Batch of 3 targets.
Target 1
Amino acid sequence: MSNARDFGAVGDGQTDDTTAIQHAIHQGDGPVEIPKGDYRITKPIIVDLAQTGRRSIHGFGGVAKIIMAGPGPAFYLKATHGKTANPLTFRPEEWQHERMPQIANLEIEGAHPEAEGVRIEGVMQPTLTGVLIRNVHHGVHVTDRARNVIIDGCHIYHNTGVGVFFDHCNLHQAIIGDSHISYNRLGGIRVEGGEIRNFHITGNDIEYNNDEVFRIEDLPTAEIYIDIQDGSVREGTITSNTIQATPSRNGANIRIIGSKTEGNRKFGFWTISSNLITSQETNIHISSSLGVTLCGNHFGNADLRSLLVEDSTQIIVGANCFGYNEEYRNTQDSTGMKFVNCDNCNISGSLIHGKTEPFTNATGRRALVELLNCRRMSITGLQVFNGLPAGMYLEGCTDTLVSACTVMETRPGEKTPSIEWSDADATNILANCRLGATTNLSDALQQQGNVIQ
């Protein structure tokens, strides 16, 4: 064990402690302890595991602060891992020198506009625990390649870039858990490009990652933002998180932008479950994806709609509550879902409840549940209340089933269409539904004669 003060670090917030801490990393013995104090550095502390051997950096229960007063990351973890996580592919020197570097129990504060928190490159099993990162650009920046990343029990707060940024990297196995990730201008957790497998976001509070406190409205963002127009992301979960914000222009709580290559959707095999997702223009926006399951979530207080799905296939929307919180932001009609140019999707068992106040249709919405130009869709067992301007609206859909749904008004005196589906042909079925007093259906649907009003 080595103590940074034994290598000349002062920790008074004024002295440049870069050389002393770097010396402790290179010449110390295993764990490097940074005791209570404010340690100003002006260059990245490089932890090159191939040279230093196994290393960990500890801040004595969070009482140590690193002030990054120069550009780049405060700590740069780098190694030489170049293959998979299969044990048979590891070189002996990786296990001997490079596995599982840790940064724990300290604060990193930026004092330069280009400062970052931690950068990770080519590392197997990097582990961050109990780390506070604030006032930098990107909090945690993973580039090039990594395996088995764990970020647990951290606070990543008020940064001008992304809280946790996976930047065009080849990554398998990552877990972000039990952390508070908030007020990051360009997103809470962001993935751009690369090849990613086995990615898990669980048990976090992810909120207000937009432009509100920065007073800048130049780029749309999201609490969780996955953009793989030039990549591939498979096998992941977003589970048991609070994901909320204040509305921002074109913002979303979760935004997934898949590959635009025709017939080659490279985002999918994901589950989004048991989350509280509220207060943005759109709660979840999914595009160009294959195989996403949403269940057990509570959606609310969206400016436009709760769920927007475009150009996607094999999307399952199970038992969710699409509602709102009457205690705040009560002026918005804050529920609803829209599917555009999708196929082979199943929507079932959800409650979708519109607001009770008068509705202003400034967004061009046609109903709480909208399907446009979709194929082979199944909509079963929904309860849709207080839909404005209608409960359901379908247009240009084929081979689509709507069954066992209740679509009704509960507002006194309101008489709006329960379902508008005027162009349905014989490939579509509307069966065993309980509808309100008014509908707008095609002759093909009316001839089926199995709608209860």
Target 2
Amino acid sequence: MKSKKKIVLAYSGGLDTSIILKWLQENYDAEVICYTANVGQEIDRKKIISNAKKFGVTKIIIKDLKDVFVKDYVYPMIRGHAIYEGVYLLGTSIARPLIAKDQIRVAKKFKAYAVSHGATGKGNDQVRFELGYHYFGPKIKIIAPWRIWNLKSRNDLINYAKKHNITIPKDKKGAPPFSVDDNLFHTSTEGKLLENPKNSAPEFIFQRSVSPEKAPNKASFVTINFKNGDPFAVNGKKLSPAKLLEKLNQLAGKNGIGRVDLVENRFIGIKSRGVYETPGGTLLIHAHRAIESVTLDKDTMHKKDQIMPRYAELIYNGYWFSKERFKLQKIVDLKKNTVNGSVKLKLYKGNVTINSRQTKSTAYSMKKVSFEENKTFNKSNIEKFINYHKKKLYS
């Protein structure tokens, strides 16, 4: 007997992907394989497995990618100081390429003819997933239900779920949930009352940070240790990439750090409003800039700042595997081997302050910068320097 074709679905076990699972089974003569990438989101293995088995799924794959995610995706992005439109630390954007890559790996392993995802037809994630799919599996078919099915609204999905006895989760107020994306780097919350930018975000939507008002009245301190541009220890204790970010998330979250309420310009041309929490990532980007300030030369730092907006935009748009992003990453990492030392941060009620920087690098010279008279800096050349730039300014 000829075996059924196979489809690998990016499956969370939640409402949307459970609906997609059933819809695929109804509309395609194929076996659906459920694939979950664990990138540090809140995950319930038993629930994922039991929910998939309700639909007769026999192949359920849950892959732990937390360390790979932080080491090979978050850390390179932190080295580039990537911030989209001045505020967004790209928490959702940076996870999608890895998920797409590993989903294609699974598809190839089981000789699946297609992959499917739950990204909506108005969002960025459909682009990010599908660019990743194309890069690693250009001959594998992509099924994007939100672009082709007849379910046009959240109410349609809920009615479909009721019809097929699919569990409908509730938020903390007992209503259908906001649209939430979660991984080890961040949590984003969108939809419902947040769609109107005049509405303030209710406190109950925040999942990994307390409000600054409820943060401790006493400051906390944390030291992040860097080697070759990447963090490797907290307060001198070496940690795996995932454990290190977990630790920083806890410290920053309890001090009300990492909240951002933003209206962003989506790649596909729509403005959207969301509330993001990136506690540990906020500490990392502050600390990394601080350690570079005493270890890198001016030209290298300024070159990185010049390319950062484009570098961040490429990540946001799903171009992580593009030639241009690889090229910019080489510029970002040109002198990362000199970025060694530690940064001590002060955390207090939503604020991050640089407390101290320590390094063996000689890029920062106390002798040259000192207000005390010394012979290491020739002040007589300054007049020539100014005169040169006077001529350059008006030439």
Target 3
Amino acid sequence: MRISIAQMPGTTLGVWRDTLALIEQLVAEAHAQRSDLLVLPECAFPAYFLDSLDSYRAARHAGLPGDTGLLEHACGWARRHEIALCVSYVAECGERLRNAATLIDAGGRIIGTHHKCFLWGFDREWFDAGDSIAVFDTPLGRIGMMICADARLPEISATLATRGAQLILQPTAWVNTGAPDQPRNPQPEYLIAARAREFGVPIASASKYGVEGGTLFVGSSLICDQQGNVLVQARQDETTVLTAEVTPATPRGAALCASERAVLLADTPPTSPHADVATLGITIMPELPAWLSAAQARDFLAAMADVAAGAPRLIASTDRLEGHIRSEHLAVVDDPGIGTCSAANITIGAVVSADATRFAPIRVLALRGVHLVVIFGDAVHDDLLATRALENRVFLLVLGNTRARLLDPAGNVIRNDPRPAGEPVNWTVDVRPAANKCVTAGTDVLADRRPAQYAL
């Protein structure tokens, strides 16, 4: 089928008539491009940044149509142009508001509504979080919806896939997380492609650009296929409608083992990593010569334990080091089956790279309070590696066959060196940022999980 994404500029409550007219123009443009379905940005009407509940109520008193009025318009546009719509707007729920997206079929009938579950920063000042994650049967296939920051929690995408979503629609307003003169956001850079690749489902994301209430949006709306290939993408600064041919796909479930499912669905607060810790020294071992004896390995580790006295150190090796030395400041990771270990209150976990292609293993370690996860092997796509670091706010040390890489909790590669062939390589890293699980003020990627909503 042909799917369109509409990118719009930021707006304000006071110009709602112009906003309504622009949305109608975008629907007409999608129809002209022979689209079957159009996705509009997050809170396309009347605005995303509301300033306050009182500001919204004042605008309503002055004539701003509410959600019912907006949906009447949207259903009429769908019928007139014979196009399905995913329209996002401010929903009125009693005295409170919700950040909503409604799916309307090409006959103008409402199919279903999703309320944003993972609220972002200022969302919380006027929106209540949604309480369910649903997939809807439509003439175009089984469709799931997530709104903006919902994509940052892997459990939400996993639930949509588990419930059979063949296509995921994402109204969004990607907030600038970079410098003012170099706007960026991890979702269009790699996160959406990683979600599509992990769960085998195409994703269509429609964003805003420009400024609302002092917040800069980065545009970059995109459609990607189930392999994570970006089919079309908007610039950061344009009003546009882009269309791509997309084939709904049979999703891949979360592929959890019983112990992972038990942890992820437990209503248990996450363990917080220690925040008051020293800088971690990391020693990356070369491939050890076959003639190295167990006694020599013990001597080496004993020497490293002396080096680590009073300063935490991680010894990372893809060879087994015999005769581990017990030291509260030294952690030896030479086996992905260690579970967790520690060096002076710095908690470290390990997985093989095949397990890092699934979200659950590192998520479980994050919930247990790790600062850093060692990944053995090269089987993880770069987009997925960055996503694993970002979605859990942890450091990742990747021990590949030829290179060693270190990613920070924002998904950035901060070290990328050849694996040593002779002497060990030594790095240092301040792991304290891993103790802060907030991606923005008041938005915690672990504490804000809602396990009761998930189907894994």
